[in-house]
Design a protein that fits this description.
- By secondary structure, the chain is an alpha+beta fold.
- It has a single domain, classed as B-lactam Antibiotic, Isopenicillin N Synthase, Chain (Jelly Rolls), CATH 2.60.120.330.
- The strands form 3 sheets. Strands 2-3-11-8-13-6-5-4 form an 8-stranded mixed β-sheet. A 5-stranded mixed β-sheet has the order 1-10-9-12-7, with no helix packed on it.
- It starts with 35 loop residues before the first strand and ends in a 6-residue tail after the last helix.
- The N terminus is likely disordered.
- The structure holds 2-oxoglutaric acid and fe (ii) ion.
- The site of 2-oxoglutaric acid has 11 residues, from strand 6, strand 12 and strand 13.
Length: 344
């Protein structure tokens, strides 16, 4: 998740493709000039990953393997979180941000490195977003007087099942025991932080950026939104995709620490949020599911050999989150420091 120090990617604009002229945006900034395509991203059927029909299960696991290796993100459908729970959680988050006085919100401005709930309002060139971040696992620190608390609890109950289910399925496609990831990341005590993001419509923002380019730490990120539009992800092939999340789907993005554990087999990826085309406010709920803070994460022996030496530094999850003086609640990436050499 982008923290205070999140770096804005400066890269060459990708050459506009003739087939997508309507995706061109004014060339006033390297990121703004990037052409993103409205391309379908992989869809993974959660229920089929656990199907009793062996053929169906094995096909679904193959799809998951391809999605993790070639993309690192996918839309998850047919999962155990009911639609009405997602809708209700997003609606109550919107109600809360709209109805809560600024003074009340500011009670949660960052005070200490131990904070478990933090509010922020960023209106800069590189970020236009109001947010609340809170630790939701192993304990839920959502303030009891916030009207979305009950809905968020219900949503997180479902997401816990999804997280453990995905950990089992991903362990299998890595050729490991079902509980492999759950055990090495100590997911039952995993440090999960929810980020409640409110992006203004473009006419209220200071620039076209909602959130600067970043990767996210941890095992994986789950994301739901109320209106479509704005999230852009860089594929491993160097193409920016404008991500569309169908109603009922949960976007899953692989995190930095799965990349470290698998020694680069399953990579995290850069993404950012644009508000340039937003006619209305957009709300997203991104939950970063991580190892427990004291888990020591390093490339596992299963993914290291003479042809693939360890490409990442080993450190605890807490040390990675505290890199550069950040605090765990900031959930800032440390991938640059974790990588032992460029370009892995
Ligand atoms: O709001 C979004 O679409 C993305 C949010 C995000 O990347 C994050 O909170 O880390
Ligand atoms: Fe993110």
């Amino acid at each position: 998740m982008a923290g205070r120090e999140a770096a804005v990617l400066v890269q060459e604009p990708i050459t506009p493709s003739d087939s997508n002229p309507h995706h061109l945006i004014p060339n006033t900034n390297p990121l703004e000039s990037i052409v993103a395509v409205d391309e379908e991203i992989p869809i993974i059927d959660y229920a089929k990953l656990f199907s009793d029909d062996l053929d169906e299960r094995s096909t679904a696991l193959q799809h998951l393997s391809k999605a993790c290796e070639e993309y690192g993100f996918f839309n998850l459908v047919n999962h155990p979180v009911p639609d009405n729970v997602i809708e209700c959680t997003l609606k109550k988050i919107a109600d809360h941000f709209r109805e809560t006085e600024a003074e009340e919100k500011q009670k949660y401005l960052k005070k200490s490195s131990q904070d478990t709930v933090v509010f922020g309002l960023n209106s800069y060139a590189c970020e236009n977003r109001e947010f609340a971040k809170m630790v939701v696992h192993p304990e839920n620190h959502c303030p009891p007087d916030h009207c979305y608390r009950e809905a968020l609890e219900e949503y997180m109950k479902g997401m816990e099942e999804v997280k453990l289910g995905l950990a089992r399925a991903i362990s299998k496609i890595l050729g490991q025991e079902e509980t492999y990831i759950e055990d090495v990341f100590d997911l039952k005590r995993g440090f999960d932080v929810a980020s409640l993001n409110v992006y203004p419509p473009c006419f209220n923002s200071k620039s076209f950026m909602g959130l600067p380019t970043h990767t996210d730490p941890g095992f994986c990120v789950s994301l739901v939104q109320d209106v479509n539009g704005g999230l852009r992800i860089l594929t491993h092939q160097g193409k920016w995709i404008s991500v569309s999340i169908p109603p009922s789907a949960i976007l899953i993005q692989l995190g930095d620490h799965l990349e470290v554990l698998t020694n680069g087999k399953f990579k995290s990826h850069l993404h950012y949020v644009m508000v340039a085309k937003n006619k209305v406010q957009r709300i997203s709920l991104a939950t970063l599911h991580g190892p427990s803070l004291d888990t020591f994460v390093s490339p596992a022996p299963e993914f290291v050999d003479e042809h693939r030496p360890p490409a990442y530094r080993a450190m605890t999850y807490r040390q990675a989150l505290e890199t550069n003086g950040n605090d765990p609640i900031d959930m800032t990436t440390a991938l640059e420091h974790l990588r032992l050499c460029e370009g892995v």
